[in-house]
Amino acid sequence: MTKPTRLLLLIAALWLSACGILLKPKLETDLVQLRSGEYQLDPRHAALLFKVDHMGFSKFVGRFKDFNATLDFRADDIAASRLEAVINMASVDVNDEELEDTLRSADWFDTQQFPQALFRTLAVENIDGNTADFAGELTFLGITRPVTIRIRFNGGATNLLTYKYTIGFAASSTFKRSDFGLDKYIPMVGDEIEIEVHAEFMRD
User: Fold this and answer.
1) Which among 2, 61, 102, 159 has most CB atoms closer than 10 A?
2) Would you give the distance in Å from CA 204 to the centre of its chain?
3) Could you tell me the pTM of the whole model?
């Protein structure tokens, strides 16, 4: 490689590095600093995972590829904020087509009769810094039960690629599937379901 070529490559690398630094926003991280408004989920930057114990050997991990959510965020009254989410249960993905078909069947998710699971917030509690508990209701297999989601807000800023103000967060929750009538193979397959969400929301 000639010296001019090496120099051009070095200049290009420095330019790309500088662009990366300029495009990374400075996030506001405290809840009261975030901008109020109606937010829509950015599906390209969202993941919904579920985990369940498998015979004590490991945590079985799957995901749902198709879900949507809205966030009504109120910085001046965080307790009045609301989150709603809809999950397409047929979009289950466990990296095994045969098992996915089994999970969609009437023995498990029964996606023909219950195509969606719904979550909606009823209250926001235990607000502390950039975390809060979104207490609400989960409707799954036609049964509604109280479920609380713990949310950690990563921060908010204008995304310099989309020019939209964006909020990012990580969320977690647990519930017992038997509370929703799904008690097949307990305890070989665990009763407690762990939910993990990583998402970005764009303000309308």
Assistant:
1) 159
2) 19
3) 0.85
